[in-house]
Amino acid sequence: MEIERARDDLVVAASAGGATIAIALLSGVAGVVDVSTLPTLAPLVVYAGYLFSRKGGPYGSLDRPRNWAAVAVLVGVIVVAAASVV
């Protein structure tokens, strides 16, 4: 595995993991929102999509690790926002 590829994977994994942990902390420890288990894991689904899309090229101009990381965080924000409304 190339170092550049490993760094890209780490960026997306850290974003998805961080969003998942933030949702779990807001739900369980802080009690701010009430989120069940499946929606809590939603950012990790984005990371899985990133991993499975890395089978070869060519990749589009929007298919960058930074964008996948942003989508993982955005999914986390949407889960928290949806849980706070309901």
Write the layout of secondary structure elements.
Elements: H1 3-29, H2 37-40, H3 42-52, H4 65-85
Helix pairs in contact: 1-3, 1-4, 3-4
Proportion of helical residues: over 70%
Shape: elongated
Number of helices: 4
Rounded average pLDDT: 89
Number of domains: 1
Largest sheet: none
* Beta-strand residue percentage: under 5%
User: What's the SSE pattern?
Assistant: HHHH
Low-confidence stretches at least 5 residues in length (pLDDT < 50)?
A: none
Radius of gyration: 14 Å
The N- and C-terminal alpha carbons lie at a distance of: 44 Å
Number of strands: 0
Helix-strand category: mainly alpha
Q: What would you note in describing this structure?
A:
- By secondary structure, this protein is mostly helical.
- It has one domain.
- Helix content is 73%, strand content 0%.
- The chain is built from four helices and no strands.
- Helix 1 runs antiparallel to helix 3 and helix 1 runs parallel beside helix 4.
